[in-house]
Amino acid sequence: MSKKKTVWFEVKEGESIEECLSRLAAEGYIVAGRKEEPLFEEVNGEYIPVRQLIQFKGVLADQ
C-alpha cells in the first residue's frame, strides 16, 4: 500500500519540535511547511491561552 504524498504531523503535548521532525523523517517525509495556532480554554468567561498547536507539512521524499 502506498503512502500519502502529503501528511500533516502535529507536535504532540510533551513532545519537542525536534522529536516531531525526527518522527516525520523516520516515516520518509521531508518538511514542506509549518503552521501554528493558539489553543484557548474558557475560564470564567475569559479565553486563556493554553498552548500553541504546531504542525509540520510533510511531503513524501523522492526515493
TrEMBL record:
Check the record and name the InterPro entries matching this protein.
NETI (IPR025930)
Q: Which domain of life is it from?
A: Bacteria
Return any one Pfam family short name: NETI
The protein's name is: NETI motif-containing protein
